[in-house]
Amino acid sequence: xxxxxxxxxxxxxxxxxxxxxxxxxxxxxxxxxxxxxxxxxxxxxxxxxxxxxxxxxxxxxxxxxxxxxxxxxxxxxxxxxxxxxxxxxxxxxxxxxxxxxxxxxxxxxxxxxxxxxxxxxxxxxxxxxxxxxxxxxxxxxxxxxxxxxxxxxxxxxxxxxxxxxxxxxxxxxxxxxxxxxxxxxxxxxxxxxxxxxxxxxxxxxxxxxxxxxxxxxxxxxxxxxxxxxxxxxxxxxxxxxxxxxxxxxxxxxxxxxxxxxxxxxxxxxxxxxxxxxxxxxxxxxxxxxxxxxxxxxxxxxxxxxxxxxxxxxxxxxxxxxxxxxxxxxxxxxxxxxxxxxxxxxxxxxx
Length: 350
Known about the structure:
Blueprint: E1 4-8, H1 13-24, E2 30-33, H2 36-46, E3 50-52, H3 58-64, E4 68-73, H4 78-92, E5 95-98, H5 103-111, H6 113-119, E6 122-124, H7 132-144, E7 148-157, H8 163-172, E8 178-181, E9 184-187, E10 193-197, E11 202-207, H9 212-220, E12 224-230, H10 233-239, H11 243-248, H12 252-265, H13 271-275, E13 278-287, E14 292-300, H14 302-318, E15 325-326, H15 329-333, E16 345-348
Parallel strand pairs: 1-2, 1-4, 2-3, 4-5, 5-6, 6-15, 7-12
Antiparallel strand pairs: 7-13, 8-9, 10-11, 11-12, 13-14, 14-16
């Protein structure tokens, strides 16, 4: 019987944090990735077995997953890493989880629903800060306003970025913002601004491409979805980049150079920074009559919450709480899945 947990991408910022928290919970995952030296050191630190496998090694991935019930895939950007891993999971009948927030990955994995059902496995992307808290909040609002036709999610996520998150961001600088309208994904022709009260008065926000325009639609069926982020200093700096520079960022060579610089310069938030940081998420649903429901969710810092929610979903899947096919977090576990985690509070404000 396949009963092993594999954590792939274990040596990155989030990967190491995930392994540390998993070990603290008494889990014994098989850790994997591309860097033998880093894996060996990490395995020795926590008393875990490791296996070095590249994502372009199909035979190696098959051997890695031979005894695995579940893989928790953490190696991003997922635009480059998800396809070979999910392909291997389908071939070896291994449940697949990842922590992506990339719309294209959610949409592609949705198309694998039938293949996953045939293989008897579950594919669930976005089991971290992207998109568990927002997906649960979207489901909660759908429960409050059953005929909602519009959903707006606004996020104020504090704290520094990990190298992986920063590299994923680089890939999207040159792209247009994606929203959902009439059930279909649409690209905006220009920036879309709004204002949101996160609890201390209204703050300016800007629409961003975020995984919920895919997952919240699958979870709730609400046809019009927009995700906004608080207009932070970092986002303002990105907005100030000239258009021709953004276009240049779409070049693969330029992206490789920038990502190389990110690896050298960005290390991610410290434990002290994570502990001192919280995030706020406001969501508002509206129906055709103009009736509204509005709720706010406060959570721990994003990387901390990612490990908390991911490992809880791992535990549930390992215990048999998995549904074959493509699933979303709140679609399977419900709107209240997020509430028991330490530091999480939900309030209905309208």
